[in-house]
Design goal:
The chain has eleven helices and 13 strands. The chain has about 325 residues and is an alpha/beta fold. It folds into two domains: about 170 residues, Thiolase/Chalcone synthase (Peroxisomal Thiolase, Chain A, domain 1, 3-Layer(aba) Sandwich); about 150 residues, Peroxisomal Thiolase, Chain A, domain 1 (3-Layer(aba) Sandwich). α4 links the parallel β4 and β5. α3 crosses α4 and α8 packs parallel to α9. The model has no long low-confidence stretch (mean pLDDT about 95). The structure holds oxa(dethia)-CoA.
């Protein structure tokens, strides 16, 4: 039996730092409100380029760190809500930029849970034994769908990308051990968190091209309540199923949407703050990049055999958790 094992992480964040102070000059907000309500101090913004710019840099670093030649990669999967174009997939654009000539791949989206869903997707591909070097990327240019006139949302998001290498190892005790993902679109979920334009239900016309519906809309309070419950419940479920406890879990790796949501999930799991990966204060919510960016930043602190619990909640609603035993 093959196990899908994470063998490397690469990441990239743009240089430009958009601080709470600068945002306070654009909309009616302030550092104190943003920090208390979200835990975000600053976020990174790409001034020139697209999602593929961020993703290609992250994948390029991953190839270098894992001593992988571009032609050795046989699969590339990208979780993103901000593809470069409607067609083709941004995975194709990354393939072309980096010369991944033997890889096929595709984009998919599951709101902020994309990377978690991607963990299960890549796990199934690699466990089959057919793919030897698969890359899963989480990348988003959130600044391209953020309304910088809306203080409810513009303080939340940032740009970034990170990628993992996943390889099959026979009968390994390490790797992606267990996953659990969910969707529930009842009770107004679709209306609470969306980007309406320019999907097929809300096509682009001269009359609609300037509407705010091209940006992220969120009913923050309603999403908050569901996010706390969704993340905490699924973490508990996967912990119980795998006999994990606060003693033998090394790290919680949560989606970085709001520090208060992270704290609630941590409390439910009975974990102390030093066991939780956090970078929301520096990068805000980078949507599909939050979890792999955490792995990227904390990589040096990880030890072989560490038990990690990844978890996310996002638009749809979508949510999930994954139990990973770190392999290096
Ligand atoms: O990643 C995908 C999933 N998304 C999430 O998990 C996000 C979940 N939601 C949240 O994180 C929080 O709901 C937010 C951070 C988005 C908002 O925090 P909140 O504590 O729920 O605030 P609120 O939206 O209820 O707003 C409270 C007050 C309002 O004023 P009134 O109506 O009480 O007078 C807002 O108008 O704060 C006001 N407000 C602001 N004030 C200063 C909203 N945004 C701002 C702002 N600066 N940027």
């Amino acid at each position: 039996m093959y196990r899908a094992v994470i063998t490397g992480v690469g990441g990239y964040v743009p240089d430009y730092v958009l601080t709470n102070e600068e945002l306070s000059t654009i909309v009616d907000t302030n550092d104190e409100w943003i920090m208390t309500r979200t835990g975000i101090k600053e976020r990174r913004i790409l001034k020139e380029g697209a999602t593929s710019t961020l993703a290609a840099r992250a994948v390029d670093e991953l190839l270098k760190k894992t001593n992988t030649k571009p032609e050795e990669v046989d699969l590339i999967i990208l979780a993103t809500v901000t593809p470069d174009m409607r067609v083709p997939s941004t995975a194709n654009i990354i393939q072309e930029k980096l010369g991944l000539v033997n890889a096929w791949g595709f984009d998919f989206q599951a709101g902020c849970s994309g990377f978690l869903f991607g963990i299960e997707i890549v796990q199934r591909f690699v466990e089959s034994g057919r793919y030897k070097k698969a890359i899963l990327v989480g990348a988003d240019l959130m600044s391209s769908i953020t309304n910088y006139k809306d203080r409810n949302t513009c303080i939340l998001f940032g740009d970034g990308a990170a990628a993992i290498m996943v390889e099959p190892q026979e009968n390994s005790e390490f790797g992606i051990i267990d996953t659990q993902n969910y969707c529930d679109s009842t009770n107004g979920a679709i209306e609470c968190l969306n980007v309406k334009r320019h999907g097929s239900a809300y096509p682009l016309t001269p009359e609609t091209c300037l509407l705010d519906e091209q940006f992220v809309y969120q009913d923050g309070k309603r999403v908050f309540v569901r996010a706390v419950k969704g993340m905490a419940d699924v973490v508990e479920e996967v912990m119980v199923r795998n006999h994990l406890s606060k003693e033998n879990l090394a790290w919680l790796v949560p989606h970085q949407a709001n520090k208060r949501i992270i704290d609630a999930a941590r409390d439910r799991a009975g974990l102390t703050e030093d066991k939780v990966m956090i970078n929301i204060h520096k990068y805000g919510n980078t949507t599909n990049a939050t979890i792999p960016l955490c792995l990227w930043e904390y990589e040096k602190q990880l030890k072989k055999g560490d038990n990690l619990m990844l978890c996310a909640f996002g638009a749809g609603y979508t949510w999930g958790a994954a139990y990973v035993k770190w392999a290096y």
